[in-house]
């Protein structure tokens, strides 16, 4: 149907929300493309190559940028070809696991730390160091069940109460 040549390659999986294809590039851009036509809707320039996948949640897009931390953008900004940033949070590092209410849950593997970040402000509200945990897997995005996989072979599953 269409083909698009970006400036550089892609190392992370794109995301798609409401007909917007979000592509993180090694060219330091987060590209927002019309999924039907391939037309560039906007592109956000960062200070470093993007090697992690973006996460779309409703009208919001979250992208971890190594030089900026977690960045929240508007999925469909009005008249902004460079994207619209709502906030940047240098303290919010890690892979997004899901959302619980108004908090994003992030897993920082190298630091072995679980963080809760406020979706409105980007503030880190809570963080817990889990030194025995080697990896974390989330099932679902909203109120996810989470499995913690420890380096000693222990697996722990946490399911939110309804």
Summed up, what is this model?
The protein is mostly beta strands and 162 residues long.
Structure report:
- The protein is an all-beta fold and 162 residues long.
- The chain has no helices and 15 strands.
- The strands form 4 sheets. The protein has a 4-stranded antiparallel sheet with strand order 1-2-3-4, with no helix packed on it. A 4-stranded antiparallel sheet has the order 5-6-7-8, with no helix packed on it.
Summary tags:
single chain; 162 residues; mainly beta; 4-stranded antiparallel β-sheet; 0% helix; elongated
List the helices and strands and how they pair.
Blueprint: E1 15-17, E2 20-24, E3 29-34, E4 40-45, E5 55-57, E6 60-65, E7 69-74, E8 85-89, E9 95-100, E10 103-108, E11 113-118, E12 124-129, E13 133-139, E14 145-150, E15 155-158
Antiparallel strand pairs: 1-2, 2-3, 3-4, 5-6, 6-7, 7-8, 9-10, 10-11, 11-12, 13-14, 14-15
């Amino acid at each position: 149907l269409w083909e698009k040549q970006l400036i550089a390659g892609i190392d992370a999986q794109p995301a798609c929300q409401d007909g917007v294809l979000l592509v993180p590039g090694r060219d330091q851009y987060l590209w927002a493309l019309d999924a039907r036509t391939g037309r560039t809707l906007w592109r956000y320039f960062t200070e470093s190559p993007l090697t992690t996948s973006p996460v779309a949640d409703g009208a919001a897009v979250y992208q971890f940028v190594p030089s900026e931390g977690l960045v929240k953008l508007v999925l469909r900004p009005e008249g902004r070809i460079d994207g619209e940033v709502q906030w940047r949070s240098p303290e919010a590092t890690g892979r997004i696991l899901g959302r619980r209410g108004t908090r994003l849950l992030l897993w920082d593997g190298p630091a072995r730390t679980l963080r809760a970040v406020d979706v409105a402000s980007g503030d880190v509200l809570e963080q817990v160091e889990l030194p025995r945990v080697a990896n974390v897997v989330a099932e679902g995005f909203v109120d996810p069940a989470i499995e913690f996989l420890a380096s000693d072979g222990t697996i722990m599953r946490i399911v939110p109460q309804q």
